[in-house]
Amino acid sequence: MQSPMATSSGKRKKSTVDKYFAPRNTQGAQPFMRSVLAGKEAIWRADMAGPNYHQLQVNLLKDAKKEVQLIVNSYRVIWAKVGCTIMGDGWTDNGQRILINFLVYCSKGISFVKSVDASDIVKDATNLFLLFDELVEKKKDGWIEILRPSATRFATTFIALKSLHDHKHDLQALVTSKFFVDYRYSKDNKSEVAVSIILDNIFWNDCLIVVNLMSPLMRLLRIVDCDETPSMRYVYEGMYRVRLGIKKLFNYNKRLYKPYTEIIKQRWNQPLKKNIHSATYWLNPCFQYDQENFCNKPTVVGSVMDVIGQKVLKDKLDTMNEMKLFRD
């Protein structure tokens, strides 16, 4: 195999690198490199040979890949703890191909994931979403998922249900249209079941109830998931408004709203309810002057006393007087 520096005549082609070792007065000379290499020869022996092709392409490349993989794995630990940002960097190469590099950014650094040739793709919001979605949904052996908004995953079910209810009349018009009735697949069992559900008013009434029940919970979830401001001070008030909203939905008919409020109350009281939630609610200036909707139950005041009592060693009577001054 011929060296890249050799010509067809067998003579070695002169490279610009050769000029680096030319005399000092030669154009392009780099005399300092000669002294550096001479020093290295003295340290590592003059007969030391550089790595061959096999070492560069196999052993050294394999070691470099392992080092990079360890770095990326350390980044993934940060992704799981504090989250990350997926970025797309578009550019055009010398061949006029439009490429998109997908990167994952976190506080520890940026890692490259993959590159996509987008020359034949219309660069609109839909196609960009599909590219990002493919990256998010990507799985690897031993992983459950790389990234997934797991805390809000259940919300997509209710968002889809709301979308169905918003298109109720369109769906009913579709299944009763001549085009659909004459379609050959409209007569099979699955189509008949789907048509009966779409034309069932009880189904749509149930959809409306579920959507209206979930709307206040969804709003609370958005507040809790927000990373811009601390959300603990809004949790108790959010749960209070959720239950109040459900009661209003059923016109305060206890027989109708109680099954739903009991479920929420049970889930709230057992694993979620903490004194700190009540205390941050009671001390939050956002709700301090809303006397009409403010919850001043003894349990709330008791929770505030418990939290303050753990931090303040003063007389409890003085503490209660100061709390009264704060509220007044």
From TrEMBL:
Superkingdom classification of source: Eukaryota
Residue span(s) of domain DUF659: 51-138
Database matches in InterPro entries: DUF659, RNaseH-like_sf
SUPFAM superfamilies: Ribonuclease H-like
Coiled coil: none
The protein's name: DUF659 domain-containing protein
